[in-house]
Amino acid sequence: MSEKTNKPHLTIIILVDALGWDVAQEFGFCRDLLPRSGPLDTVLGYSSAAIPSLLSGTSPSMHGAWAMYRYAPSESPYKLLRYLPELPHPMEWRLRALTRRFMAWRKTVKGYHDLYEIPLKLLGHFDVAQRGDPYTPGGMSKETFIDHFATAGIRFVSWTYRTPETDNFEALSEAVDSDSQVLFLYTAELDALMHRLGTHHTDVGEKLRYYESRVRGALEAASRVGREVTVFVFSDHGMTNVKKIIDLKAKVDDWGVAKRRDTVAFYDSTMGRFWCDPLVRAELTERLNATGWGRVLSDSELEELGCRFEDHSYGDLIFLADPGNLIVPSFMGKEPLAAMHGYHPNDSHSRGCFFTNHASCPLPESILDIKDAMVEHVMENS
Ligand SMILES: [Zn+2]
Question: What is the model's pLDDT at position 105?
């Protein structure tokens, strides 16, 4: 308890999607305001993998969510779509909008997801990997720090991508003068901005100054009401500027390999994932490695990265593009982007970041350390 007020210690947690350590450094983000900081290692994959890993402290192979879509012919909520005939583009577009609306109405998937540009016929064999909402208690198969707070009776308020960023920051500032113990805000606007403009754009610097001003505002609001506050700002992964567009799908189609023996191919922005028999797998591995665009990840490397799945639901073969190479068109988008993430976690641009005003707490080194760090800090101060 603070001596100046009867309000409990306040912890503010801000999760900025895709804020890389290098980008934060480039723009001098929160250098004076949150002076203790460091880079955070991430996991291989997109936010669909990194957010559940960060919230739960477990790797994708433990919590089960890696890419947004996994091969699950028997559980796919889109099963009926596999019987579709080849449709002309406008009809497929209309049916996609209808499917989106139907799924939203059924509420089968509670977390963030989109159909993107996945061919509808193929979608009939796939399922969204994370059906629950990881930001709500009980939303994941593994315990998150949000679950922990809920079980411990911590007074916790959160704001996510479901409501506008400015409204969320406004509400957070106001909630400083409440009896909440933890305020949690997740934003994906910087991620969207950098995908569009790249990491060096002046708008990125402006956005970071805006976040910094909101952190300053919250600290000032706390000081006005005499409340002790610890602020943590961190991210799930970084962002890499795109240098080269690679049309992996056209290349694989050209080889004719993917058409053989029921091979299934799924094109993410930085990964090609294939389900195929051992013969096709061997041939594809050789050809993919010879492209010079990236490489096929071995089972032992996937194991080391915490991304090896016994049931091969994310692919029998995983091709990962080299940093800066973007697969276009992919099932995630038809147009090139200025920047992307989902490259090898060892690449320096992949690293996330961690900032705090806490004078002595240990600095986490990986997004996998965040859950324990948050739980320890909040429970010690409750
Ligand atoms: Zn993104």
Answer: 63
Give the CATH number of domain 243-336.
Answer: 3.30.1360.110
Amino acid of residue 175: A
Domain ranges (residues) in the chain: 10-60+133-241+346-380, 69-128, 243-336
Options 3.40.50.720, 3.40.720.10, 3.40.50.2300, 3.90.1170.50; CATH of 10-60+133-241+346-380 = 3.40.720.10
Q: How far is the CA of 290 from the centre of ligand 1 (A)?
A: 28
Measure 3 CA to ligand 1 centroid, in angstroms: 43
Give mean pLDDT, residues 4-16: 87
Instruction: State both tokens at 218.
Output: 């919250």
Q: What share of the chain is helix, strand, coil (3-state, %, to 5)?
A: 35, 20, 45
CA of 34 to the centre of ligand 1 (A): 25
d(CA 317, CA 99): 29
Residue 353 alpha carbon to ligand 1 centre in Å: 15
Of the chain, the percentage scoring pLDDT greater than 90 comes to 75
Q: How much is the average pLDDT of 23-42?
A: 97
All residues at 6 or more sequence positions from 311 whose CB lies less than 8 Å from its CB, including other chains: none
Q: How far is the CA of 339 from the centre of ligand 1 (A)?
A: 9
- The alpha-helical segments, DSSP class H, found in the chain are 21-26, 47-56, 60-63, 89-106, 120-123, 145-151, 165-175, 189-197, 202-224, 248-255, 278-289, 299-304, 370-380
Is residue 110 within 8 A of residue 132, CB to CB? The reply is: yes
Paired with 156 in beta bridges are 182
Q: Supply 191's token pair.
A: 């991620």
In terms of Cβ atoms closer than 10 Å to its own Cβ (0-12, 13-18, 19+), residue 283 is: middle
Residues 340 and 195: beta-carbon distance below 8 Å? yes
Lowest mean per-residue pLDDT among 72-81, 146-155, 200-209, 267-276: 72-81
Distance 46 CA to ligand 1 centre (A): 7
